[in-house]
Amino acid sequence: MTTVGFLVNPIAGMGGAVALAGTDGQSAEALRRGAVPRAADRAVQALSALPGQDVEWCTCAAPMGEDVLAAAGIDHYTVLYRPAVPTGAADTKAACRAFLAAGVDLVVFCGGDRTARDVFDAVGREVPILGIPAGVKMYSAVFAVNPAAAADLIHRAGEVPCRDSEVMDVDEEAYRSGRLTARLYGYACVPYIAERTQGGKQVFEQQDEERAKNDIAAFIAEIMIPDALYIIGAGSTTARIMERLGLLPTLLGVDAVRNGEVVARNADERTLLTLLDEHPRAKIVVSPIGAQGFVLGRGNQQISPAVIRKAGLQNLIVVATPGKLAATPLLYVDSGDVALDREVGDSLQVVSGYRIAQRKRIVHPE
Question: Which residues form a coiled coil (predicted)?
């Protein structure tokens, strides 16, 4: 039987849908903007999928773990740590130290990159760690690709190999101002199964990549429909589309464009839904995260399941350069709505140049 130390960062991911690009130090502002906590739901989704009772659980009191275990129907656990209210990084680290003292075999946490860093600070490489993805960005390679994959990895812990995986330290203040500043924080030991454990993000800046971005931008600008609303997701490839239109992009946010003019900059979910009420004919343009392959659910939570359903899944346009696609063999969707993720299907056509597209396989770990 595997002994698992389990904790939840209750505020993780709240900043995504309300266009805060992260939640570190911003939980009060996220709530003011109408954000809804999502980490607990993501954790319940993962733990509810575990087959049988083959895990001995150690956890934290109330919202940092105990509530999730109860909601997932798990009634045999030991509470080893009682956090302060509200919880913070110090609680994550203290809980992990308590898990280590209890001799756990694996530390499972639900959160984002900052939570991963705090867990790593306390655990290091003494035991494997695994993240249930609930943050905004999640550039670290310590997360399962979705809650169902996390359940499989937990169930098979001790049987599957571990690998050294990057823990990334992302500067959220810089991120909010449109600059991606990340450094390697360390290498954690993480259970690894292909198509279950996500990779680290890669950035592509070669000369040929820049030419490909220009070609993609020229093609998308050419096929834009008059009076239609275009929701432009985050990334350097989608930013080039905005620049082709003579518009200033929000590199790490979501913009909305109609008839060559910006109608919303760095829009949140609520703004996008309002715009879709006013302009029901719409397209959504996104680019997968390099190497990780996530089309939805990483860094673009403003484009929520409600937004996608309102615009129509058939109006989703995915763009990526050939270099990015070559380093990204598989695509994933983790929108938070399992039914919607399934509706995306088993493959997507990705625009990779001027009137050029590639069809890429989508993996649904369930």
Answer: none
